[in-house]
Amino acid sequence: MLIELTKKLVIERLPGRPDTGHKGTFGHVFIVGGSLGFTGAMKLAGLGAARAGAGLVTLGVPESLMTIVGAQMLECMTFAVGESPSRSLGTNGLEAALEFAAGKDAVVLGPGCSRHPDTREFVLAFVRKCPVPLLIDADGLNNLSTDAAALNQAQAPVLVTPHPGEMARLAGTSISDVQSDRPNTARKFASDYGGTVAWTGAGTISAPPTAGRQVCPGGRSVPLRPGGSISRPSRLRRRARTIPGSRGTPPTGRRARPVRPLPSACRTLPSAIRRCSRISTASGGS
């Protein structure tokens, strides 16, 4: 049975954002990925998490890429992960990454992480051992497709967010085959491997490992609970890359209060300070 996922239903399931809330109130998302030449995926995922309302966002990237990502993302913190010879995630950084993830509200794994053999081993081990809710996207899914049974060994809830090509690789078949019956393909994969599927494409389909689905008639949907949803695809590829970060963000509340324009007196304060400084310097004051 399909239940329509309406705006009213979504609002009812999201907690309010208290006026006294602060960055520690709204969750901490840890996004793990990136590799040489693919740091932009991490930037977009971090931006998605921040704009979705996460209080804190940390980007876990190969240690040699820390300065590149840090310079691009002033809103997010960074965490150095041991790397492979190709400057992607390496198994030598696995234990430290898992230890750091343990104190977070959710983890996103995979944006731009590459398919290097050492990175593949990192991804599969991380999926099995991650102690908090985990979202897997992009090359995380491509690496997972070599051993999807790792999902059955996961210690925490898992959400996979494939596009049609990634879904075909996960299912071990062709794109035409999975596209011919998208709802049932998503349902079977979720049931076989015990995770929730949010399948992007020409209509986002979400399927939980248990019975029950929901349908969203328009816009991109974010699964809030085990359930299913269908929505129209994004028109911008850039927007699609921010989706993993926003989906990985814990449901921290309804839309934040709009930023109010500063009073005119506040807007003119910086220029007034600069004028006073120039006057003081000209008169020999300190």
Q: Could you outline the blueprint of secondary structure elements for this entry?
A:
Elements: E1 2-4, H1 7-13, E2 28-32, H2 40-51, E3 56-62, H3 66-72, E4 77-81, H4 94-101, E5 106-109, H5 117-129, E6 134-136, H6 139-144, E7 158-160, H7 164-171, H8 175-179, H9 182-193, E8 196-199, E9 205-207, E10 213-215, H10 237-248, H11 264-267, H12 269-282
Parallel strand pairs: 1-10, 2-3, 2-5, 3-4, 5-6, 6-7, 7-8
Antiparallel strand pairs: 8-9
Helix pairs in contact: 2-10
Structure commentary:
Residues 219-241 and 254-281 have low confidence and may be disordered. The chain has a single domain, classed as Ribokinase (UDP-N-acetylmuramoyl-L-alanine:D-glutamate ligase, 3-Layer(aba) Sandwich), CATH 3.40.1190.20. 38% of the residues lie in helices and 14% in strands. The protein contains 12 helices and 10 strands.
Short description:
The protein has 286 residues and is α/β, with parallel strands linked by helices. The protein has helices spanning 7-13, 40-51, 66-72, 94-101, 117-129, 139-144, 164-171, 175-179, 182-193, 237-248, 264-267, 269-282; strands at residues 2-4, 28-32, 56-62, 77-81, 106-109, 134-136, 158-160, 196-199, 205-207, 213-215. The chain is built from twelve helices and ten strands.
Keywords for this entry:
single chain; alpha/beta; UDP-N-acetylmuramoyl-L-alanine:D-glutamate ligase; two-stranded parallel sheet
Helical content band = 25-40%
Unreliable spans are: 219-241, 254-281
CATH homologous superfamily caption: Ribokinase
CATH class: Alpha Beta
Per CATH, what is the topology? UDP-N-acetylmuramoyl-L-alanine:D-glutamate ligase
Which architecture per CATH? 3-Layer(aba) Sandwich
Structural class by SSE content: alpha/beta
Trace the largest sheet across and list its strands.
4-3-2-5-6-7-8-9
Number of strands: 10
